[in-house]
Amino acid sequence: MPMPLLALLIGFFVGLRSLTPPAATAWAGHLGWMKLGRGLAWLGTLPATILFTALALFELVNDKLPKTPSRTAPPGLIARIVMGGFTGACVGSAGNMGLVTSALLGIIGALVGTFGGYQVRTRLVKALGTPDFVIAIIEDLVAIGGSLWVVSRF
User: Fold this and answer.
1) What is the pLDDT of residues 75-104, one digit of tens each?
2) b/e for 59-69, b at 16 or more Cβ within 10 A?
3) What confidence score (pLDDT) does residue 26 get?
4) pLDDT of residue 57
5) pTM for this structure?
6) What is the predicted pLDDT for the residue at 1?
7) Hey, where are the domains in the chain?
């Protein structure tokens, strides 16, 4: 799999769930699936892995609450841009790709995942007549499975 595509994909999954791909990346670094570059190796430490896992679990629960703001609102969008660039850079560093290029690809992927994921989720809820919660869980599974798939390619 070409490295630029992996950086783009990890960003895409950030667009669906902003903290799941960083948690998957932290686990991959911790378990030795990917060798993170010097400046990013801290993500694979046990404390960082635990922190990002806890944050990701919180996000998975929080996403289902009725008062959670849209991912396209500024706080969620900014978090996705930052985490998309960060995880894209992590994937790029593990694949000996330039950090700036891989971070930009992660950001692009995050933007596509954010707005595309929003559109798909809202349209599926309307088309299928299912509660948002059901589609959100499917989206969770896509983000988790996709993130783990990307970080296991090394």
Assistant:
1) 999 999 999 999 999 999 999 999 999 999
2) bbeebeeeeee
3) 98
4) 98
5) 0.96
6) 83
7) 3-65+72-151
Q: Is the dihedral of CA 44, 50, 79, 77 positive or negative?
A: positive
Amino acid at position 14, single letter: V
**% of the chain with per-residue pLDDT over 90:** 97
d(CA 67, CA 73): 13
Query: DSSP letter string over the chain?
Result: --HHHHHHHHHHHHHH-SSHHHHHHHHHHHHTSS---GGGGGGGSHHHHHHHHHHHHHHHHHTTSTTPPPTTSHHHHHHHHHHHHHHHHHHHHHTT--HHHHHHHHHHHHHHHHHHHHHHHHHHHHHHT--HHHHHHHHHHHHHHHHHHHHT--
Residues in the chain: 154
Tokens at 76, concatenated: 């969620």
- The first and second tokens of residue 10, run together, are 């990890």
Give the mean model confidence (pLDDT) for residues 23-47: 97
As to burial, measured by CB atoms within 10 angstroms (0-12 exposed, 13-18 middle, 19+ buried), residue 97 is: buried
